[in-house]
Amino acid sequence: MGKSVFGVIVWGTMTRKTVKIAKGCTHELHYFSTEEINIFQTCLLAWYSKNKRRLPWREIAEVEEDENKRGYCVWVSEIMLQQTQVATVISYYNRWMEKFPTVKTLSQGTLEDVHKLWAGLGYYSRGTRLLEGAKKIEDQMNGQVPQSSSELIKIPGIGRYTACAVASIAYGERKGVVDGNVLRVMTRLRLIGSDVTNQETVEHIWSLADQVVDQDRPGDFNQAVMELGAAVCLPRNPLCAACPISSICKAFERTRIPKPKNKNRKEKASSLYDIEDCHLCLPKENPFVTADGVQNYPRKKKKTAAREQKYFVYIVHKKEKEFLVFQRPSEGLFANLWEFPCIEADEEMKDSIFLETIGIKTSAAIKCGETFHKLSHINQYYIVNELKVDGDSQILLPSTHQKMEWLTEEKIKSSVASTAMKKIFQEWKNKLEKTVKPEIRRKRKADSKISGGDMKRQPSINSFFKAE
Predict the structure, then answer these.
(1) Mean pLDDT of all residues in the chain?
(2) Furthest CA-CA distance within the chain
(3) What is the SS3 assignment for 72?
(4) Which of 36, 78, 339, 427 is catalytic?
(5) Which three-class secondary structure state does DSSP give residue 388?
(6) Banded model confidence at residue 266, pLDDT cuts 50, 70, 90
(7) Distance CA 281, CA 194 (A)
(8) 339-363 confidence digits (pLDDT tens)
(9) Of 118, 336, 55, 80, whose CA–CA distance to 72 is shortest?
(10) Residues 452-462, buried b or exposed e (16+ Cβ, 10 A)?
(11) 116-142 as b/e, with b when 16 or more CB fall inside 10 Å?
(12) Fewest C-beta atoms under 10 Å: which of 96, 179, 317, 403?
């Protein structure tokens, strides 16, 4: 019999029988035997030692003797890697560590400093939380990064996964982790076909992660599982032939079952894997699709379609080419970032009224084009307009924003603005160039006529020396 961990049953060595306990069916296929755990740990760690990518935060975690700096470096990497690919993070991480090599240096930084380094990485609130966390560590924890997951989770921006990842990688705490890669690996290894957004399913996968984590090398093991998901156990076209633990993968085993010759055998083969009334098996309404193979796992609910938002945005500038920008609120989407005057198109307030509320009396805006920017949950469409104002114009700060500035083009490029705003500025510049270039061409043509450009070309000196 197994023992209870987080309210589910964790199995030791087991026989091949279906067992029903508590909620629904807890079939042995959804758990690891002692033998399978040994194979998992031994084979995966050997593979990882040979195949792991050399990443800056890993190198620091392996050689840094200062425990506080080691924890800080791993923490920063884990926050940056949320929702962002490794290849993108590397350059940002290196720049960050040059600017803020320790918790103390980060705690002394400003939000403006943080956002400048974060610009282009997206999800700016992550950088904000890092700064808040560093300040809390310095002010309330004597400058020492907590070494246990239970204490790390008290820091702003650190959730369950990050706390366990930092504690295991930097400090050797024997805790498993579950991110997107680990979730995919575990569901395939243990045939977990229930919705992975369901809390009960998530808790089961966390219990598996804690069960299998290597006791001597928990940090390496956790990184190995994540590496396996990133390099081998891919969402599409997984490289099962190259997987070091395919021998204990039930999804892989299921794809290798010979096709039954009659309907009865088909039903019998299916019953080996999907147990009636089991809350972890594939649901009846979404049965196993042979053509999809291991890609039947994990199962997710269909994504909600991204909503669409339309905005009017204004490039307001003076003759001396200074551009008006407002700083967004300290909370919400694009918090604290700078933006051009902007209003959502479907709001009750019309854009002309909006301009009046910020002190612009003219409605003579020139449309410059449209820009599209896609977020994970929103498709944003911006109608880009240009407005020239007098140098002595008195612009009013909207009550929804924090600050107002007039910035040069150079400062806009280096400012802490969202990617959408920088795209909008580039759209305006492109439009400007298209209108200026024809004028330049006409001017050059006119200059050419004045200087005799339309006269017959004079013969070169070489023509006088040609033989008749």
Answers:
(1) 83
(2) 111
(3) helix
(4) 78
(5) strand
(6) very low
(7) 6
(8) 999 888 865 556 677 778 888 766 6
(9) 80
(10) eeeeeeeeeee
(11) bbbbebebbbbbbbbbbbbbebbeeee
(12) 403
Residue for token pair 């991480």: 93
Give the pLDDT score at 165. 98
Say yes or no to pLDDT of 463 above 50. no
* Among 217, 258, 429, residue whose Cα is nearest residue 340: 429
Pair 382, 345: CB distance under 8 Å: no
Q: For the segment 9-32, what is each residue's pLDDT rounded down to a tens digit?
A: 344 433 333 333 334 445 788 999
DSSP 396-465: PPPTT-S-EEEE-HHHHHHSSB-HHHHHHHHHHHHHHHHHHHHHHHHHHHHHHHHTTTTSPPPPPGGGGG
* pTM exceeding the 0.90 threshold for the entire prediction: no
Per mean pLDDT, which range of 127-131, 139-143, 373-377, 421-425 is the poorest?
A: 373-377
Which run of H or E residues covers position 60?
A: helix 56-63
Do 2 and 12 contact (CB within 8 A), yes or no?
yes
Query: Has 410 been annotated as catalytic?
Result: no
> Residue 316: which region, alpha, beta or left (left: phi > 0; alpha: psi -120 to 50)?
beta
